[in-house]
């Protein structure tokens, strides 16, 4: 501890003694101006042949392409969506696509206007009335800030102390808590329970790995609300007998739900940049390691966030912030060598090494602790209406036509099919495709690590609606229908297991 404090004091002293420009005593740091996407457009690019796909991928990996916001990956299965700024970059992309014979069309002609109408506003009075009436400020007809989600989680713990437990598994780069909500019904009927709590099978649901995917945390909180209300639903006289059996199966599992894996990026996307997807780590700094890492790192991060500007040569535009938390896992991370995964300013930057970020490390440690109980891992992401799973070990050595059949994946594929059938039968608001995932887009992903690193055989990625009409700007009126679909999917999956 003495050595740690000495290092910290030396760092602060050196930084404080650095010459900096004189600032008037009455001046205050100017607040960050929200990023404007006025006149930005979302283009949909259609690919029909392998040659066209390669040419589009070449542009995506070029210096110009790496700097663009690609809302999904180019594929022969579905068109690619890319956020295009006005001016020279738009003209350059248009010229390239026309030269290569790639067809495109704008699906959102003014992204800034779409953002302005995306999320209904809630007055302070309405929020206070909501908290007085329900005990928390969360609704499911608008998207909420991270603080509202935290209040909701604490409300669940206070109202259902025998069912809900908050597990603080770590902190984000900027110090926000990374919290998993555990919902367990083991204490409701202790005499009937044949399995001790430590041996109960469990499900892990994760959302919010990318800050700009607001639909994931909204659906995760709706799912939590549904789970804690199950006993009251079962007591109702209107519940059919067959559904009661299904709900009791749900109660036989422990549920671990992480509503927001990336709290810094999620909050930043609300208050400053709607399209921000990564976390907020500073990629120009070296992360300290060894004894006292968490304390020293937090202190340095706090100091850098509050210290005055150090020199006149300081240029914020040269600092790249953030890592894509869905590509920072130790699953084929070394194979993600494309520039889009190795360029620090890219939206898909995979980090300097696997688990370089505190958020991914926290979830990794939690999964390894619970790995014997976890039967199912589900990552909620946007968008595409697709349920996927990572390829098995050795599947890459088999012919393409055999890679994704039942011979290779067996029960993993079958569980996904059963879950989708249950979703279509009971809810069916949206139609999802079942498409096993492979190739560079899966390198470094949480689902890949959950399957191959933590040993959770049934690990899936669910890409939520829609298929591109709104993309990342999905209206909040879709939250409840999607939540119902996800609940039916999970119910069907655990019934299969």
UniProtKB/TrEMBL annotation:
A GO CC term assigned to this protein in UniProt: extracellular space
Pfam family, one: Peptidase_M14
Boundaries of every Peptidase M14 domain copy: 142-497
Gene3D superfamilies: Metallocarboxypeptidase-like (3.30.70.340), Zn peptidases (3.40.630.10)
Record keywords: Carboxypeptidase, Disulfide bond, Hydrolase, Metal-binding, Metalloprotease, Protease, Signal, Zinc
Domain of life of the source: Eukaryota
Keyword check for Glycoprotein: no
One of the GO BP terms on file: proteolysis
Gene Ontology MF annotations: metallocarboxypeptidase activity; zinc ion binding
Required cofactor(s): Zn(2+)
Keyword Secreted recorded: no
Recorded family membership: Belongs to the peptidase M14 family.
UniProt-recorded name of the protein: Peptidase M14 domain-containing protein
Species whose genome carries this gene: Anopheles maculatus
Lineage: Eukaryota, Metazoa, Ecdysozoa, Arthropoda, Hexapoda
